[in-house]
């Protein structure tokens, strides 16, 4: 289940990033960051399950930071 979620979030992130690069229109950057953070959260949970606590906490910290940045972008735009 986590692998499917990770794949879906990563593909969505890639599509938003590709759209921005191709069209030079970055209005979906906040949504892209949100999905990037969600994929980091899923990877962090996977690392917890594997027993790699250090990497898991790092990935969860990256998720929290990207969540903060994307929410700020939603509120300020």
Notes on the structure:
With 77 residues, the chain is mainly alpha-helical. The chain has one domain. Helix content is 88%, strand content 0%. It is built from three helices and no strands. It is globular, with a radius of gyration of 13 Å. The termini are far apart.
Features:
mainly alpha; single chain; 77 residues; 3 helices
- Continuous helix count: 3
> What shape does the CA trace take?
globular
Low-confidence stretches: none
Helical residues, percent: over 70%
Tell me the series of helices and strands, N- to C-terminal: HHH
* Sheet with most strands: none
Kindly name the structural category: mainly alpha
Strand content: under 5%
Mean residue pLDDT: 95
CA(first)-CA(last) distance = 34 Å
Taking Cα atoms only, what radius of gyration do you get, to the nearest Å? 13 Å
| Total tally of structural domains | 1
Total number of beta strands? 0
Summarize the structure.
This is DUF3953 domain-containing protein. With 77 residues, the chain is mainly α.
How is the secondary structure organized here?
Blueprint: H1 2-23, H2 29-50, H3 53-76
Helix pairs in contact: 1-2, 2-3
